[in-house]
Amino acid sequence: MSDGSLPLLRPMLAVSSRPFDSAEYIYEVKWDGYRGLCYLDGNTVIRSRNLADLTGKFPELAGMHRKVSRKPAILDGEIVLFEKGKPSFAGLQSRGKISELKSISRASAERPVIFIAFDVLYCGGKSVMGLSLIERKRLLEEMVGTGEELVLSRYICGEGRKFFEACVKEGLEGAVAKKLNSVYLPGRRSAYWLKFRHTKEADLVICGYQYGPGGKNLGCLVLGGYHNGRLVYQGKVGTGFSSEEANALLEGLRRLEVAGETLQVPRAEKSRTRWVRPLLVCAVEYLEATAGGCLRHPVYRGLRRDKTPAECPAVAIKVWLDGT
Prior knowledge:
The chain has 324 residues and is α+β, with helices and mostly antiparallel strands.
């Protein structure tokens, strides 16, 4: 048990799918933010998918328990930062890195986040995870009084393809289909929830880096993913980060440098790669996986501080051997 009388849980996760239409599903926006479970009773506690306490990072959300009836309760949702009317994952990452209290307070006023709730796990101190999704959605609407810091994720029924196309047109990350009669399965990745993305995305481990021309600035990150318990080379990513992000990454990676290789790479990459302890995870968008075991046209989207390296499976498999 944790956070008062409520059990410590991990959120239910979705699997990837192509868009489809079905009267048995609802469709809602796939929000580009930090996943979080809100524990609400006499106060508000927000925990990440890996159980880390995010409450202190986002003080503007500390009063959410006042907006919710029938406590103790656990809500599932996403912490999202909007810039120019659209979710900004880079902006959220910037907020998440701040550790000094005065800076956190200033950032919460200047660039506030909101919590977008889309499910309820506990209500009145009792589990409602065995109820169907549509019953939980109705319960959520009864419990939550929305405000500046807390809103409900809206959804439609049946027309998944059109909804996904509308999300893409608006520059959103994608959509999620959820089966109407499905129960909530904490900590499990289930086909009850299916995510549609207009580009593919992977969370991969930073295993090394290479300098750009001139040997001073960050050129690219060397990425790996786990397959059968070992890290497998997934290629390099050298676009998507600003000069500020590149400098911050380079500073952090230098402190993690090690002498030995942390995964096998093609011979041409060995001499130019500086190896690091495989502790950092980053999100990468890409078009497809190549037959050579790498990602095609990868774009860096930010560090995933809410994920561990062990949670990063390889998306393209080719075991690189000496001489390849």
